[in-house]
Amino acid sequence: MWMDELDPKVKSSLNKLLLEVSKEKKSYLTEKKSSKIQMWVALAIINSKIDELNERIPKPKETKNLKKSLKKL
After folding, report:
1. What phi-psi label fits residue 24: left (phi over 0), alpha (psi between -120 and 50 degrees) or beta?
2. 10-15 contacts: CB < 8 A, separation 24 or more?
3. 3-state percent helix, strand, coil for the chain, nearest multiple of 5
4. What is the 3-state secondary structure (H, E, C) of 5-28?
């Protein structure tokens, strides 16, 4: 299977994402194009994680010492 050929870190990340997507089955399972909806759900989950990370990054105006703030992350 193609997943067996993936780098272990990538495979682990993919498995985590697939697990999260499967939690949203009720939103796509009954649809005709469920595979496309699954991809949109996965994209939304990834985007949500990016948003969470962006919220944790201090804004230049909000901090005097960016290095200290980044160490806290």
Report:
1. alpha
2. none
3. 75, 0, 25
4. HCCHHHHHHHHHHHHHHHCCHHHH
Quote the distance between the C-alpha of residue 23 and its chain's center: 14
DSSP structure class, residue 73:
-
pLDDT tens digits for 6-42? Answer: 999 999 999 999 999 999 998 888 888 888 999 999 9
Is pLDDT at 59 greater than 80 in this prediction? no
Long-range CB contacts (within 8 A, 24+) of 20-29? 20/45, 21/45
State the residue for tokens 């985590």: 16
Question: What is the CA angle 17-15-41, rounded to 5?
Answer: 25
